[in-house]
Amino acid sequence: MAETLLNIEGLKTHFFTEAGIVKAVDGISFNLKKGESLGLVGESGSGKTVTALSVLRIVPKPGKITDGKIEFNDENLLKKTEKEMQKIRGSKIAIIFQDPSSSLNPVYTVGTQLRDVIMAHQTVSKTEARKKTIEILEVVGLPDAETRMREYPHQFSGGMKQRVAIARALACEPTLLFADEPTTNLDVTIQAQVLNLLNDLKKKLGMSLVMITHDMGIIAEMTTRIVVLYAGRVCEIAETHDLFERPRHPYTEALLAAVPRLDMRKTLRVIPGNIPNLIEPPSGCRFHPRCNYAKQTCKEDIPVLEEIESGHFVACHEWQNITLKGERSH
Ligand SMILES: Nc1ncnc2c1ncn2[C@@H]1O[C@H](COP(=O)(O)OP(=O)(O)O)[C@@H](O)[C@H]1O
Ligand code: SF4
Ligand SMILES: [Mg+2]
Questions:
Q1: What are residue 228's DSSP bridge partners?
Q2: I want to staple 129 with a disulfide (CB 3.0 to 4.6 A). Which of 77, 118, 220, 267 is the partner?
Q3: Could you tell me which residues are beta bridge partners of residue 38?
Q4: pLDDT value at residue 270
């Protein structure tokens, strides 16, 4: 079995706002193996981004990691100093966001930015760094890299800008890459190109990937294992094909039912009800107000994540009493 690269246990990240404490990530646990592609999926507001920001220790104020453990290569990142974290960010763990502009500096040319990142993390001369910059821009499929590296981020199209952002993230050869909805703002053809690129790079560089998305179609293509989040908690963890064929958590079933199929593109279904308020979340199972299978216990007791088959975890009181529909049954 592959070694564990990242191990998150009981992580809590809360936002201390004037309106109250937003329990955005509230006791989540999962791990990631070396070289694995893991999906982190859930509706908007379920805590996906905050989870990634927590691992990198860049949670914005008024957010704070209040509990848990984040082990990366067997070292607890929550015990590191800010200086140590700066070294890890970019060189070992990198992130790309939905909006590529957020990771690029508008006042420097693309080439300068990449070169600076490379030089900050590797002991290379300016000339070598420049050569590496061109190489990496070619790797991410930027045509005419040698000329285009002299341009500024705003001179690039959305798809090309995301390629540059990926190049920046990869410039230091990270062992772990978080891709947070990296294609949400791109049109469908460009989306496919960027996803293919990520897949290729992952294979080539042997890094681990955490693919964050609310799109079950993307997750099916890009991952081998999935963590389903709902309102700051883990509902289910399983291998991708298993989760799609035999979901065990009612929320996963609802997510699968909401996937627009090719023949039904026009009738995109959504999960009825709203994501709960995370200042005063529902008692017991946080999904109970929207769950078709809820019983009285669901309102009272928090379901714990249990391993029901090898590698398949679920947090639901009712999993033994219900038969859920997988991807093909809708
Ligand atoms: N800066 C912030 N202040 C207060 N609440 C926040 C902040 N950032 C995120 N949250 C809250 O944390 C929860 C999870 O957010 P997020 O991780 O961004 O969700 P996702 O990425 O799954 O869409 C949301 O309810 C959101 O409102
Ligand atoms: S614990 Fe109850 S409310 Fe929660 S998902 Fe399971 S059946 Fe539904
Ligand atoms: Mg997000």
A1: 41, 236
A2: 118
A3: 210, 225
A4: 74
Q: Model confidence over 297-329: pLDDT tens digits?
A: 999 999 999 999 999 999 999 999 999 999 866
For residues 54 and 219, give the distance between their C-alpha atoms in angstroms, rounded to a whole number.
21
Q: How many residues does the chain have?
A: 330
pLDDT at 243 over 60: yes
Helix 110-121 to helix 82-91 angle, to the nearest 10 degrees? 120
Average pLDDT, the chain: 92
Greatest Cα-to-Cα distance within the chain, rounded to the nearest angstrom:
68
Question: Cα separation of 251 and 247, whole Å?
Answer: 9
272 preceded by cis ω (within 30°)?
no
As a whole number of angstroms, the distance between CA 99 and CA 122 comes to: 27
Taking each helix axis as running N to C, give the angle between helix 158-170 and helix 188-205, from 0 to 180 degrees, rounded to the nearest 10: 10
- Cα of 44 from ligand 1 centre, angstroms: 9
Predicted model pTM? 0.94
Least Cα distance to 32 among 250, 226, 259 occurs for: 226
| pLDDT at site 171 | 86
* Residue 83, number of CB atoms within 10 A of its CB: 7
Does any ligand 1 atom lie closer than 6 A to the CB of residue 44?
A: yes
Helical ranges in 149-295 per DSSP H: 158-170, 188-205, 216-222, 240-245, 250-257
Given the structure tokens 């989306």, which residue do they identify?
191
Asked if 232 contacts 28 with a C-beta cutoff of 8 angstroms, the reply is yes
Residue 50 C-alpha to ligand 1 middle, in angstroms? 6
For range 217-228, the mean pLDDT? 94
